[in-house]
Amino acid sequence: MVKHLCALLLGFSLTLNAQIDKNELNKLEVEALLVKDMTSKQMLYSKEPFKEVQPASLTKVMTVLLAIEQGKLNRPVTITREMTKVEPTIAGYRRGDVIILEDLIKATMIKSDNDAAKAIAITIGGSEERFVEMMNAKARAIGMTHTSFTNPCGYDTKGHYSTPKDLLKMAEYAIKNRKFNEISKMNEHRYRALNKNREFYAYTHNRLLNRYQYAVGIKTGYTAKAGPCLIARAKKDGKDCVIVMMNAKGDRWKTAKNIFEQVLES
After folding, report:
1. pLDDT digits (tens, 9 = 90+) for 124-178
2. Residue 14 has what pLDDT?
3. What is the CA radius of gyration of the chain?
4. Which of 59, 87, 101, 247 has its CA 20 to 30 A from that of 119?
5. With the C-alpha atoms ordered 254, 259, 261, 262, is the resulting torsion angle positive or negative?
6. How far apart are the C-alpha atoms of 100 and 191, rounded to whole Å?
7. Are strands 227-236 and 188-192 parallel, antiparallel or unpaired?
8. Which phi and psi angles does 191 have, rounded to 5°?
9. Alpha helix locations (H) across the chain?
10. Nearest-CA neighbor of 197 among 58, 63, 75, 97?
11. What is the pLDDT of residues 64-123, one digit of tens each?
12. What are phi and psi of 44, to 5 degrees?
């Protein structure tokens, strides 16, 4: 009986592992890579899960989560000079523009606009410094024990770091939120200032949303130190997979698509 049970468990394990070609993934030029089957809750592949990395704009997942969870998404936000002092990716707000908070959230997630992220931080936290404290408190609350945020945008500043494992925890928490999922899979968003005849256009940097029909988010990132980064998710026929990829030297979109096809088509 015991031998029979062990044989069944071994066969089940091999079936799960057969979903992904680990030898091919081992050849990839990436600093870190995690692949998790969200349906079975099994980690299918793990490279450098605890390595300290620069999270770049993956940081903004936490930024928008705090904004979404506070609930007042129709709140008008008046842009201040401080909110516009960012670079390089921006929506182009001007002092005095009044923007709905949900539009700021979408601009932060879809196009990764740093002025939108900073506007969220100052509005929700009262100051950027207080908002960063909120980010770190939330990180600790959801089990991100090796993460420290110093800004809401993802700049490579001293003390701003995370690990692939923590970023996966953040993603797993985020995708429990219906509004977050709705926004993270958007390709584009057009919106206007409430008080001026000014229109803004947010377009996604996530090429998976245009190239792979089962992709449903989540966030891209890039800085000089972090390199190209990605938290990606795809769903098909009840199967659900999340990838965390850090400092990808090759085509991160092609790599992610290939992984998803292995997991979701098996």
Report:
1. 999 999 999 999 999 999 999 999 999 999 999 999 999 999 999 999 999 999 9
2. 36
3. 19
4. 247
5. positive
6. 9
7. unpaired
8. -155, 170
9. 2-17, 22-26, 60-70, 101-110, 114-125, 128-141, 164-174, 178-184, 208-211, 252-265
10. 97
11. 999 999 989 999 999 999 999 998 999 999 999 999 999 999 999 999 999 999 999 999
12. -90, -25
CA separation for the pair 94, 15 (Å, rounded)? 55
Q: Which of 248, 132, 227, 242 is nearest to 181 (CA)?
A: 242
Which residue(s) pair with 161 in the sheet? 148
CA distance 184 to 261: 20
Q: Are strands 188-192 and 199-203 parallel, antiparallel or unpaired?
A: antiparallel
Catalytic residues, by residue number, are: 57, 60, 112
> What gap in Å lies between CA 35 and CA 16, rounded to an integer?
12
C-alpha pair distances (Å), 223 with each of 93, 165, 200: 22, 20, 24
Q: In what order do the strands lie in the sheet with 42-47?
A: 42-47, 30-37, 239-248, 227-236, 215-223
- In the numeric block, which tokens belong to residue 123? 């509005």
CA distance to 28, 81, 103, per residue, from 107 (Å): 31, 18, 6
Whether the full predicted model's pTM is greater than 0.85, yes or no, is yes
Asked if 84 and 91 touch (Cβ cutoff 8 Å), the reply is no
Q: Which residues contact 165 (CB under 8 A, 6 or more apart)?
A: 34, 49, 50, 146
